[in-house]
Amino acid sequence: MNFHIYHPADALRPFVKQYYYWEDDTRGMIQLPQSLFALGDQYMVFILEGKAEIKPASYQAFALPANTVLGQLTCACQLQVYGPVKVAIIQLNAYGCYRLLGLDVPNFTNYYRTLNASGQLHWNELPAALRAIKQGNEIESLLDEACLQALDSHTNHLNEVDDMVDYLLIKQGNVSIAELSARHQLSRPTLERIFSAIVGIPPQLYARMIQYKTALNASQQLQLPAWQLPVATTPYYNQAMFIRDYLRFHHETPAYFAATAATIAHMPANSHAQVAVAS
Fold first, then answer.
1. Which has the minimum average pLDDT: 129-133, 186-190, 216-220?
2. Predicted pLDDT at 274
3. Is the pLDDT of residue 245 over 50?
4. pLDDT band at 224, cuts 50/70/90?
5. Which of 20, 85, 169, 278 could cross-link 89 (Cys pair, CB 3.0–4.6 Å)?
6. What distance in Å separates the CA atoms of residue 28 and residue 141, rounded to the nearest whole number?
7. Can you tell me the distance from the alpha carbon of 210 to that of 169, in angstroms, rounded to the nearest whole number?
8. What are residue 51's DSSP bridge partners?
9. Cα distance between residue 89 and residue 128, in whole Å
């Protein structure tokens, strides 16, 4: 298995977080962990070889089209890949999809949108260019070029949603909608409408995702079981609130946390870093 992580160009931040390139010669079904995709982010997925299927915990499974925008995932999802597989992934932040592609939530079916139907030809041409690469460092430049072209061709106004998202992240989700409305001088219905259209989910749910990820990281760093979560160091008032969200986003009861798995959602970004190789 070859798994590489790359940095986007400076001009693409904060809309684009990281790039991933994964090759695996394993034949048949590959079951991947639930934490592969992070809550609160969206992803552009280019399946160059193989097939992929996503099974949300509470919904019908669906096949992932070859060129797709994926997100917002609001519950635990199991990703099954049928190899051999070759995949390139662009990890976007919460409002990156709208800024780069001009796609708001009505453009999505369930959790995804097929890029082939977006009318943006350079995304349809990108997979062929990725298949033709000879060296790993070409991946980063190809993805940078595609994203920069998209950034230049779209002038979508974020309606302050980027500032709302960044403020929620700084506050670790500990922000009421009344405070957010007052800060941006918007009525609550207006704020919820523009936030949901651009991010894809209501601000209340996005704040809960941030709270959950913050608390989960705290418990993993301290190597404590989830039911011993030190509430004082997290945005939660008590363990019951954390367990409620754990069930929603992880779809199983909390247990002792093992060491953080090497997944897309958790890997640090190291430019041109080869994360895993197996022959």
1. 216-220
2. 40
3. yes
4. low
5. 20
6. 31
7. 7
8. 82
9. 15
Please state which of the four CATH numbers 1.10.10.60, 3.40.630.10, 3.90.1640.30, 3.40.50.300 is assigned to the domain occupying 161-250. Answer: 1.10.10.60
CATH architecture of the domain with residue range 2-156+262-276 = Sandwich (2.60)
**SS3 label, residue 140:** helix
How many Å apart are CA 127 and CA 5, to the nearest integer? 18
Q: Report how far residue 121's alpha carbon sits from residue 77's, in angstroms, rounded to the nearest whole number.
A: 30
Which of 108, 110, 106, 112 shows the shortest CA–CA distance to 60? 110
pTM given for the model: 0.82
Identify which of 100, 141, 140 has the alpha carbon closest to the alpha carbon of residue 120.
Answer: 100
Per-residue pLDDT band for 181 (boundaries 50, 70, 90) equals very high
